[in-house]
Predict the 3D structure of the following.
Amino acid sequence: DSINGGPGDDTLSLTANLTAASSIAGFTLSNVETAHVNVTDGDTTTAHALTLNMLNAGVNNLKASGLSTSTASDGVTFINVAAGSTLEMNNATNLDLNATYASAATSGDADSVSVTVNGVAATAATDSILTIATGFETININATGAASTLGDIVTSTATTMNITGDQNLTV
């Protein structure tokens, strides 16, 4: 399937009621600047993840929001994310965000990724985990809009983390 947003600033919005692990792949997006995924917890007894393969998407901004259950937090996983794409966790409660970028995005020795958090809540330390896959040396986090709490920030290669913004960020 293909979606062409045409001229202007376009957003593709997807709402998923997770009752099992799910994945979406094989789509092409062009002229769509933002992809926004909103998750609702359809099975509060088990954690599930929605995986989106962004291989042919070329989206500049990936947003995740939604509500999940504490200690069984659901998640959104973006894979094959294009170089330069930013991430955002917005109005998310107990929702994990995982991102793996295409190899071209992390091929240098000074690669950075930017993440915005706004109104993120974690009921327990195992909730609202931000995971940035291998290859980035710097993670830039901007806390804006409303205070945010992350259960953890997971990365295996970043040696620098810059925290900015007008709101508190608790990890």
